[in-house]
Amino acid sequence: MAEKPISLEDIYNLITNSNTELKGEIEQLNKNITVVKKEIENTNNKFKEIEEENKTLKNKLNVLEAKLKKYSVVAYGINEEDKGAAEEAKEFIEQKLEIFIEATQIRDSYRIGRKV
């Protein structure tokens, strides 16, 4: 059997159909690219918001830490007896620094590390 020769019209139709299919696929790819670009833009915007919030929270933390440290005194080598940390701190301040205070003026006192 002899095969039917391919005519120029058949070739033209194949190319036209292929071209149409490719155009459809390209349009779909372009739509997908647009969607991905929007998602990336949304993600970038959310990331920027999170960065700003993180920066704000870090600043707030620094302010709070500074406020906590503002009235802090750390003393090493105080022998703790049965009196408690506040009374020991009061006695240390009075004896070593010659500053006379009431134990009630000490807001917080506690031992750091092991007992000496």
Can you walk through the features of this model?
- The protein is mainly α and 116 residues long.
- It folds into two domains: 64 residues; 45 residues, no CATH class.
- The longest helix is centred in the middle third of the chain and has 63 residues.
- It is rod-shaped, with a radius of gyration of 39 Å.
- It starts with 7 loop residues before the first helix and ends in a 19-residue tail after the last helix.
Give the helices and strands, then pairings.
Elements: H1 8-70, H2 85-97
Keywords: Coiled coil
Coiled coil: 12-74
Supply database-style keywords:
0% strand; 116 residues; 2 helices; 2 domains; mainly alpha
Count of strand segments: 0
Globally, the shape reads rod-shaped
Average predicted confidence as pLDDT: 85
Tally of distinct domains: 2
The helix fraction, in percent, is 55-70%
| Rg value | 39 Å
What composes the largest sheet? none
One letter per element, helices H and strands E, the order comes to HH
From the helix content, strand content and strand pairing, which structural class follows?
mainly alpha
Task: Tell me the strand percentage band.
Answer: under 5%
- Total number of helices: 2
Our measurement of the CA-to-CA distance between the termini, rounded to an integer number of angstroms, reads: 109 Å
**Unreliable stretches:** none
Oligomer: single chain
